[in-house]
Design a protein that fits this description.
The protein is α+β, with helices and mostly antiparallel strands. Helices cover 20% and strands 34% of the residues. The model has no long low-confidence stretch (mean pLDDT 87).
Length: 153
Amino acid sequence: MANYYPAPEHIRKRVAWVNEAAAGAVCGDLRMEVLEADENRGEYLFLCHTTSAMRNVIHTLHGGSVALVADQAMGSVANSMFLEDGHAPTSQLTVNFHRPMTAGDDLTVRVKIVNASKRLIHLSCEICRAEAPDKLCATASSIFFRTGKEKTE
């Protein structure tokens, strides 16, 4: 089965839906935006806004909040693939931390589709502070389990 890379309009539609549906929830606080979408390469760049409430006791961005950012961005891509109905929940998420981030920082998240089979979607991402896009702060990889029907377009 060939990989289907979601078109920019599918990603933007998914992100807009999440921002609206998650209003008042912690993932809604990210107010995610799509900055770039390259469906030919299966790469997508998001902007996520963090808040001071996402800090830990030493006032850096909490590791769980970093995992949230990664999962939300990668999940937006995964849930835009092959689905006419159903979802693609996270079945595995690994986060590696390279530099601290400050709660309240805007973050860029570059998501890449690594592989997609009939039921599993493997994604990776790189997270940087928006003001320092050349300094890698965290990387993550995930596997999502597809449910529902395949897209036919």
